[in-house]
Each structure stands twice: as structure tokens, then as C-alpha cells.
């Protein structure tokens, strides 16, 4: 368990944040300037707050009341930056060993062979960073952090410098890190897709304060919590792969109803997370027929949230909560209100591969 309680005053901005992160991957989520990186820098020891307490289990990193202020190099942290920051004159293997060189002699160490297999970097060991793609560099950076025998891993928007192709390449490795490495991970992001795929716990920040904390499905499915604005709203469903069809579609069991997506890698029986963007959902009071859209999820309106120029409707379905972003005129025409039965319509091709991830944590 990571426990954080921080207070620090800057000119024009005050950080006053408290949260506890259970095992798994905890995402600090919010718009730019909300205080996410300030928190992670305080945890890393790069910022000394006016007052605060930071602990990983019984490992006390900071307690200003008791005069405990560990230096950054004594905090046993693995830090993954936005850019890999590998040593260009060293091979991949030598960069990995550099991380291990800083591990305390008496600390439990990760096996290098296991880390190499976990991150799929075996073929890269003799290369130098200049010969690697952005995604490959980040995998090596993750490996270096793991081999430093950390008690906590910090990741400050580690995918922000990558294009969409490289992000898609590296996201599965963060899923494996979440599921297979017994370490708490504190991950900074302003991407709803990353949160939906990776987060065990979401800590929402706004103006230097923690405004909500909970599981990804709970936070992203709440229309009252839209840290990135209504345009980025989208809920997360946990569904089960049922079968792969010959026409290139995968059929999933979404609470007893079929959900068709472009073919995914997981086999039948596997559970996956699917993020459905609110602007990709159409609502109907009666079950529609003769549509090109294959996915129709039956549900009941949980809440109608009126925002600027649009309405966010939260619908409880058999698979979980879905959000729909529609006009106020449409909401009034459909007479939408809490308890009204509706059908949520989702185009198969509207769900991107980056919005589909393995279930873990």
C-alpha cells in the first residue's frame, strides 16, 4: 500500500493531496496543471513539500512531522520518464545492468532473464539505443527500472512521446507489468484510454487536490467526474471473449448480450476491458432494426448529466455502465430520465484497438 499526504504552496498554486493506493497500478488522472507530476516528483524526492507523509507499507520515504526526509537515491524507486533516457554509448544489456548496479546488495532482485522475457527485449540486448524504436527504448527503460530492485515504480506519462503505433506496441507490456510484478506502480496520465486499459485504481486530480478515487470502471463511468471534459468521456466494460468469426470479428459476451469488435488477440474465455467512448453511443427507446451497427446493449438510465451544449447519459447494462453523449434536444425528445429503459447502440468499428486490454489486478 502506497500512502501519500502532501501539502505544498507555490506561487499561484497549492498542492493539497491525500490518497492511498492499493497493490496494482494506480493512475494519477487529470488535466495538465492539476498537480499530477508535482505529486510524483514529491514521491521521488525531487520536490521537498512544505509538509507531508509518504510511505510504501512500512518503508517511510517522508514524514516531515518526524523529520524523515529520504534522499532520492535512498528511496528505492524505479522511475520511468516520458523519454527513455538510456545511455547511448552502452548496449541494451549494459543499460539493464546499470539499473542492477544501483540495487542494494541485500535487496531482493529481479532475475534479468525473467525481465528480458517479460518485456520481449531478448533480440535487442546487443544493440545500442540509437538502433531502437521509441517503444523498444521504453521497454528497455522499464527493464532498467525493474532491475534496480525498487519498492515502488513511478511512471510519468511514459507514452506521451510515442506515436499511436508505438503506444499500441508498449501498452501490453505495462499490462504485464501490472499483472506479473509484485510492486505498486504510480502512473501519471491524462489519456482516458490509458486509464481504461491499465488502471487498477484511479486518483482524479483537479487544481492540486484529489477529487475522486476508485476503480477505473467506477470513475470513468461517472458522468459527474469528467477531468478531461465531456468530449473525452467514455466508460469501461469488462466482457468475456466468446468466439472469433471467420469474417474478422470477435464476439464477446457483454452481460448476456453479444458485443462484436474487430478481431482481438485474446482467446475464448479470456476477460478483457473495453472502453466505449460516449460520443460513439446512440440511444433508442425501442430496440432498433435494420441498422448497420451490430451492437445493441439494453439498459436503464442511471443518470442524466447536463453539461455545456450536450448531455451525458449514464446507462446501466448487463455488462456494466455505458455513457452516451447526446444533444439536449435528443434527450428531451426521448424523455430520458432515471429509470427509463433504453438501448445503447455502438458501431463495431468505433472501438479502437488501443481501447481494448487484458483484465488484471
TrEMBL record:
Q: Where is the ABC transporter domain?
A: 1-232
The molecular function GO annotations come to: ABC-type transporter activity; ATP binding; ATP hydrolysis activity; molybdate ion transmembrane transporter activity
- Keywords on record: ATP-binding, Cell inner membrane, Cell membrane, Membrane, Molybdenum, Nucleotide-binding, Translocase, Transport
Q: Which residues form the signal peptide?
A: none
Annotated ranges, domain Mop: 290-355
- Would you tell me the Gene Ontology cellular component terms? membrane
The record, for Pfam families, names:
ABC_tran, TOBE
Q: What is this protein called?
A: Molybdate transport system ATP-binding protein
Species: Celeribacter persicus
